[in-house]
């Protein structure tokens, strides 16, 4: 009987890994020596970085959605099911009705914003972490003429530059509509600086000061009053708003926590070099599901290269020698005209940040390139 690799999660990381494996191991799949099983609960695949483009009406929803089956290599067995438990002790994953045994497991279950962690937040806040949320935020911003927009940001969150990019793009969006002067734009964040990468924080601070974006550090949300439109913080302060845009702390997928595999936030303890789950040589983890000391997002492409190389070597009876160095990168839009590009790894962060119109053009090409990357063509 052939071996089976189960890839859990049909987002960018999981789909990319399944397709890369299928392209590298076509002969083994055809001969029946190997099966690659990709399990996801959604038949639609969303290009999540495109949510901000929907918010600012640069793209329509149909431009950032594909059918998952259209993206998956013919050598991959695609199953739509919701996994409830991961059982490394039995080498299987379980849904309500079915058990899927594996020889090797890849966990790519991502992360999710926790809107239930703060009383009143779910009822009060707009966000850009789902297509539905992006559409609601688009409509809310389109109707704004004056007032107070409060952006409240907590850690960790996926999309390492997304909250800053939203604030900067929003400033430009309001200026283009000729209503910026009548709007107080405030960016409140839980840390002591605007971004965990100091060069990014320094650059963003200069942009905020030039453009009159109010910023407040150590902002710890305690509760929100939806009726009075007030935010209350842990230090007893009260902050009124007309539109509240929230980036709450993210957590790992429920299946990870329910299986007893996650840390206190539901992220899988992962070896930073091998991308294996700590304590299990047959389970690999990548993308936002890991607890690696890196920004959430911007790393899945590079992680998949290492993970796939090692799995292919292992199946061929060779040593796993490929090592992940923490590499990642992301674009950061500054306006509708320019953008920056930030690259990092475990030992190196950007020395400085700048933006340009050329980088904005490259950022615009990120969407079309994504569909090729996720299919493992690029």
From TrEMBL:
Q: What is the recorded name of this protein? A: Sulfide:quinone oxidoreductase
Please name the GO terms that the record assigns under molecular function: oxidoreductase activity
Span of domain FAD/NAD(P)-binding: 4-142
Q: Which domain of life is it from?
A: Bacteria
Q: Where are the transmembrane segments?
A: none
